[in-house]
Amino acid sequence: MAKKIHLLPPQLANQIAAGEVVERPGSVVKELLENSIDANAKRIQVDIENGGVKLMRIRDDGDGIGKDDLALALSRHATSKIYELTDLTAIGSLGFRGEALASIASVSRLNLTSCLQGESRAWCATLHGRDMSVNIEPASHPQGTTVEVRDLFFNTPARRKFLRTERTEFFHIEEIVKRIALSRFDIGFMLRHNQKIMFNLRVAEDDGAKDKRVASLCGSQFIKNCERVEFNAVGLRLWGWLGNPEIARSQNDLQYFYVNGRVVRDKLLNHAIRQAYQDHLYDGKHACYVLFLECCPETVDVNVHPTKHEVRFHESRLVHDFVFSQLQRALTNAHVSTLATVEIDAEPEVMGSEQPRNTVAPRTPQTRPSATAVREQLAGYRQMTSPAKQTQQAFIPTTNSDPRQLPLGRVLGLVLENTIVCESEGGLVLVDYHHAQRCVIAQQLLQAWQGEAIPSQPLLFPASIQCSGETLALFNKAKDEFVKVGLSFDQMGPTMLMVREAPAPLRKLDFAATFEALSVSLLTQDDFKKTLQVLAVHGADVAVKQQDRESLNRCLRQCEQLSKEVQPKPWIVLDKARLKELVT
Ligand SMILES: Nc1ncnc2c1ncn2[C@@H]1O[C@H](COP(=O)(O)OP(=O)(O)OP(=O)(O)O)[C@@H](O)[C@H]1O
Ligand SMILES: [Mg+2]
To answer: Which ligand is located closest to the Cα atom of residue 104?
Structure first.
């Protein structure tokens, strides 16, 4: 027979919800600290007794809660932070679910004392029984709020059994307070355990004070061996302290990452950071960092899990590649400059404003971490900074003479989408723009492959490419050939490649489409020159999008340098006699 359906008593319903949010004393402290931050506190005091099992008291000087709102604050699905569904799409506060206090209250003895800004009277709320009825009494409290949580899990013995020693539980609490204290330099934090002050951090206004806070929470070793970084691009800001590889640790216990001020543990971001460090860390060591990513709240979803430790970015690939490329560059530059005392331009680049720098990148294929990696980078950057290479203007002859005296003359315009019309002393020249670019790029690649240098540099956003295991094997086999033409990639997993570096004509390729075409060529052609032709076609697809007069003229000058072997040439000349014949 079917059992009767009934509503759960509020306490039981809240206890079930608490299962997800209140895992241990540390999670209570996290929720209460977040509430104080959301209430604009400037100073927060945390008192813990017996690892939090006996007492956790969080006191703040924030906005406070009015008498009429106290009962609501303790009931489930009650919040002052969002009003409607659309608010969920751009959350500016740390809390928004309206269930933390109710959940904590259902598995502990909780009281909430608060004095609203501008009021002279404070009130204290306590909860009783299975229906969680609220009792409110006058209290004495300065402006702000104190939440006291005693005897956590006293009424849920199954949960209580999972609590560890006082020391371990306090360790978790301390870690949570540290994490949050690192995220808000504008708030003072004090943590006490069994009446002993563990730390007392004042508001940190300037850079020096911020460094001091980082030093007291992460250790002086960290602050002495890190770089302060800041990057802004594509609507994202990444800043913070990046630990030098020399202080990498055997555990991942000095890794702090925040998204819009929220502590997150996110696989995507972890992956990007790990990858950025991959050429610098050995023996399974873990990087150290305190980093903050700021983005428009509309572009990130924080309502992924009740603990809000996970986030989901609308443009996850962009965020991943931004974090990876900026950190990788910062690490490489920092490392090389300390070793060789050479100055390397560490300016963050903005997407879309990339200018191919006339630099020659190291010709060694990118390798997995190895003891020689740093030496190789150093050699590469020395090459980059050597004056001989810097002045190398590959394939672009300069001329001051009247361009009409040159074989292909000067550009009159681009017609029929793809045909450059030129005027020379001899007559009229028609150039197939796409074909011309293809020939020019193919020749550049061929010369590079045969041993001439081609300027190449790391991509601002390395491109990840999904492919099958077989395709990956093909690319790995031909990797050294691609490196010769300035195109470097690494295997990132069983089915992924990461293109890291490309020469100027190939920097803006659609890498996914190009690599698909390249894989077909590698599979069907034995001659690598044929594969270079495929690269050239894709390079030309991008090049022909540049239709300003300067680009068209440059293409003409490059065509004039094409070797005799390039046949048929991508142009026809209509000399004066021929033109006359045609029009009369
Ligand atoms: N320290 C505090 N100072 C002022 N108001 C507070 C404080 N703590 C809680 N509140 C009020 O009580 C409400 C309920 O808090 P609770 O933590 O349960 O939910 P929330 O913060 O809105 O959402 P979440 O469940 O995601 O934390 C808050 O929305 C806020 O209005
Ligand atoms: Mg909350």
So the answer is: 1
Ligand 1 pocket test: which of 35, 143, 147 has the largest number of ligand atoms within 8 Å of its C-beta? 35
Reference 25, options 49, 61, 59; nearest CA is 49
Does the beta carbon of 113 sit less than 6 angstroms from any atom of ligand 1?
A: no
Residue 505, classified by CB atoms within 10 Å of its CB into exposed (0-12), middle (13-18) or buried (19+), is buried
- C-alpha 101 – ligand 1 centre gap (Å): 7
Whose Cα sits closest to atom 28 in ligand 1?
79
Query: Is pLDDT at 266 greater than 90 in this prediction?
Result: no
Of 76, 57, 71, the C-alpha closest to 15 is 76
Tell me, using a 6 A CB cutoff, whether residue 144 lines ligand 1.
no
| Per-residue pLDDT, 186 | 97
Q: Is residue 28 within 6 Å of ligand 1 at its C-beta?
A: no
* Domains within the chain, CATH numbers bracketed: 10-200 (3.30.565.10), 207-340 (3.30.230.10), 403-574 (3.30.1370.100)
CA angle 232/282/318 to nearest 5° reads 25
Contact 282, 367 (CB under 8 A): no
For residue 93 and ligand 1, the question of a CB distance below 6 A is answered with no
Q: How far is the CA of 214 from the centre of ligand 1 (A)?
A: 28
Is residue 225 within 8 A of residue 277, CB to CB? The reply is: no
Residue with CA at minimum distance from ligand 1 atom 27:
95
* Selection from 145-159, 302-316, 507-521 with the highest mean pLDDT: 145-159
What do you get for the CA distance between the two ends of the chain, in Å? 102
pLDDT digits (tens, 9 = 90+) for 22-49: 999 999 999 999 999 999 999 999 999 9
**Distance in angstroms (rounded) separating the CA atoms of residues 446 and 536:** 10
pLDDT digit string (tens) for 80-94?
988 887 777 788 899
Nearest ligand to the CA of 39 is: 1
Structure token pair of residue 462: 């390395």
Asked if residues 430 and 571 have their Cβ atoms less than 8 Å apart, the reply is yes
> Is the pLDDT reported for residue 379 higher than 80?
no
97 lines ligand 1 (CB under 6 A): yes
